Please model this.
Amino acid sequence: MASPSTQNTFNSIRTSIKKREFKPIYLLMGEESYYIDELVDLLSKTVLTEAEKDFNMLTFYGVDSDVNNIIASARRFPMMSEYQLIIVKEAQLLDKLELFDIYAKNPMPSTILVLTYMHGKIDSRKAVVKNISKVGLVFESKHLYDNQIPSFITQYLRDKGVSIDEKSSILLADHVGNDLSKLIQELKKLEVAVSSQKTKRITSELIELNVGISKDFNNFELTTAVAQKDVYQVNRIIDYFDRNPKDNPIMVTITVMFNYFSNLLECYWLPRKDEQSVMKTLNIGNAFFAKDYMVGLRNYNAMKVTEIISLLRTYDAKSKGIDNSSSTHGQLLKELMYKILH
Model:
């Protein structure tokens, strides 16, 4: 999961690149490919003009490249340009990656070397990481926390000149999760949908039309109904889920419920159970996101919440076939919701 600073660090690097404040070496590594791809794309658009790229931009791939050849290319001078740009993709597949440690001790100031190390990271204690960080930039791209996704959606769309209301950003976050590549695909659909509008604003109605999420029957509305102990609304939503299982898999619903009640349990140990304390403890940036926890604190006690968390683990196992030979996912969800509410 991500450090809360992942997005901020990405933004600061992006700002520096746009100002043409380049580093001689960039080591971009981590589990979340979105931020790495965005920074590489920005560097490829910013460092060189289109005319300069013909002679001064090289791309290597870790699977079939040699570190010594890459270093030799990095040590050459650019042709009719201030810089040359060398991008090494999938650097984790290179043999003898540690040889970049030697280059990092004396890098060419006119070369910008970008190493992308995907789906993992290099131990920060290794000399190659330490020496790159002294002269260049080391960035670890981590997955965002689930509760950071709504703010990511809002910021991403704001950068595109599109606004979105708070409920809609949560709706998308709950539906897609923290897979940013998948999320960006959905956001691009919505960008196209509002492209002809004078005021480009995304609403839950627009999401229902273009992404296929019901604005009334979804995990966000289910969480609110469960928090309020609104039995009628909970039953309406899970009946809809039962009729549309492909778009509303039980595993996602259980995960959303588990996250809600785990967070709610944490709130019981607060000295003060006011809105500001809840927001601070759960790292919630807007009071809109805290309302379900304030309602939940009134409607459930800590012992019941502990019991519910245990139930969620049990039904997660049952949904995967453990101690369950005949019940459908719809039946399991109805049983689970009855036990949560009573």
